[in-house]
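Protocol step 4 of 6.
Sequence for Pectinesterase inhibitor domain-containing protein (Fraxinus pennsylvanica) entered exactly as in the expression construct, tag removed. Do not edit the line below.
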Amino acid sequence: MAPKKFNYFSLFFVTLVALLIAQSTTIEARKFIGVNRFCTTASHKKLCTNMVNGATNMHDATQNAILATLGLAKRIQSMSHLIEPAIASLEPVSQVSIRSTCKDSFESTIDDLETSLQALKDNDQGTLLTRLSASASSDCDDALQEFSVDNPLSKVTGHLAKEVDNCLAVVQQI
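Step 5 output, structure tokens:
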């Protein structure tokens, strides 16, 4: 009688292990979807793959990446009020200067990305690369740093820099 219990236990144990292995494989398959072929040279491949959003040709990959970056740039612009508490202890003239610099910087980034989209439509590679590169600079970060103010938007602006870098990688695919 003891051998039957052992056989059932062994069968149960083997089945349980097989189910766990199958479940683990399924979870892993959901985690890794692969790198989009237009993101192979990107520094941030997973982010880039999300940005190109399943594009199957160079034009669509570039457009999707720029549109994703433009969306983030607009969100950052709408978050600019978060700078106010960080600069509250500065002299009023410095506050005005930083506000103006940040406002101009956010607008410039959006303009550079919108111009990049137009250059893509016009097949103007030079303007596309120039304006994408320009969108990476942030005079706002520099102004805050000049006054030794911690940028409350540093994480999101750092993410924007990664997205711009990815856009440039997609555009420059060989």
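Step 6, annotate. The chain has two domains: 1-32, 35-171.
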